[in-house]
């Protein structure tokens, strides 16, 4: 059996267990608080709200909580307004269904106007339906009280008790990106050693997958900036977090683009049968070691200089190599917290 088929679900469980445990505890606490504060015997909406706010996989739990509360409020108000239509006008089942559909339409449109995540219009529509189907006594202010409790508990857990370290988030996604670049550079160096265009094409396909890691890093940087504005932990380190997010995103975009251009140009040069300059393979392997965190070399980018002149056919490889030589040694082995004040490194001449 392919171990990767079991490894992936296991990795997902490991990544989700912390949020899952927090969700279960917060849900129970929301249930108890709703009963104690408002005397609700079955505060289902309180525990459901806590689950929706803290479930694993959400890009930002705080934004989810605020959006949920806003959506519920819009839906309840819209449903209450729809109930103002006299009952004798809604006697027919078709007209009652039309009222419900109209309330759903209006609540979703109003919620969509805020430009917030999908949870806002979804909850607005659901809340309007519940008010009209269950009555305002069960799904109106009663539900809003439960939602307020669930949202409050969710915010306390996500913004105070279990707020992730924004700098660690950035570091983690950057290291994953660098590892992917290192793997691609190693494959490119091997293709260069064997003068094999097919291996170079395989290395290019590996490098194309860095776009996935780049997207995750940019999402992580956005989440860190949001955390710096809206969480207690982020507020305490707002300046360093914003600086680290900007610097990491800038370096990641440049490194991804340069690595992709390097491997693509190398592939083209090998296809045309051009002889690589001496020292190029060693230089690429050194950069791969830096990216993979396996090198303990000075961050000068000049530890493996090229020997002799460089033919014109290989200049398109050398140019992105300069960019990687400026970024990878400086980033490897150091986190965002150490690099937040690092000035841009000038591109050295690899020759």
Automatic annotation (TrEMBL):
Classification via Pfam families: FUSC_2 (PF13515)
Natural source organism: Pseudogemmobacter humi
InterPro entries (alphabetical): Memb_transporter_dom
Full protein name: Integral membrane bound transporter domain-containing protein
Sequence intervals crossing the membrane: 20-38, 65-85, 97-120
High-level lineage: Bacteria, Pseudomonadati, Pseudomonadota, Alphaproteobacteria, Rhodobacterales
Segments forming domain Integral membrane bound transporter: 30-157
Cell compartment(s), UniProt: Membrane
Gene Ontology cellular component annotations, sorted alphabetically: membrane
Domain of life: Bacteria
């Amino acid at each position: 059996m392919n171990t990767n088929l079991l490894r992936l679900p296991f990795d997902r469980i490991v990544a989700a267990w912390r949020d899952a445990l927090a969700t279960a505890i917060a849900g129970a606490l929301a249930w108890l608080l709703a009963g104690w504060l408002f005397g609700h015997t079955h505060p289902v909406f309180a525990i459901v709200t806590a689950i929706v706010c803290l479930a694993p996989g959400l890009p930002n739990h705080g934004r989810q909580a605020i959006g949920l509360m806003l959506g519920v409020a819009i839906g309840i108000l819209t449903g209450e307004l729809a109930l103002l239509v006299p009952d004798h006008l809604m006697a027919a089942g078709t007209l009652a269904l039309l009222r419900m559909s109209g309330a759903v339409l209006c609540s979703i449109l109003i919620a969509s106007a805020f430009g917030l995540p999908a949870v806002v219009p979804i909850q607005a529509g659901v809340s309007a339906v519940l008010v009209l189907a269950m009555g305002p006594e069960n799904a109106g202010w009663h539900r809003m009280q439960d939602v307020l409790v669930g949202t409050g508990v969710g915010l306390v857990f996500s913004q105070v008790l279990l707020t992730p370290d924004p700098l660690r988030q950035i570091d983690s996604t950057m290291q994953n990106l660098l590892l992917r670049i290192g793997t691609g550079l190693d494959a490119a160096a091997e293709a260069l050693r064997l003068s094999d265009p097919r291996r170079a094409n395989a290395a290019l396909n590996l490098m194309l997958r860095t776009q996935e890691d780049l997207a995750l890093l940019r999402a992580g940087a956005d989440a860190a900036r949001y955390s710096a504005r809206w969480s207690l932990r982020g507020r305490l380190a707002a300046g360093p977090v914003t600086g680290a997010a900007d610097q990491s995103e800038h370096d990641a975009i440049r490194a991804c683009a340069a690595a992709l251009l390097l491997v693509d140009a190398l592939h083209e040069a090998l296809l045309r049968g051009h002889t690589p300059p001496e020292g190029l393979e060693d230089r690429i392997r050194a950069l791969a070691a830096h990216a993979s965190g396996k090198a303990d070399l000075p961050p000068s980018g000049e530890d493996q200089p090229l020997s002799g002149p460089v033919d014109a056919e290989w200049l398109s490889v050398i140019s992105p190599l300069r960019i990687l030589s400026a970024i990878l040694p400086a980033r490897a082995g150091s986190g965002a917290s150490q690099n937040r004040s690092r000035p841009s490194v000038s591109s050295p001449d690899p020759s």
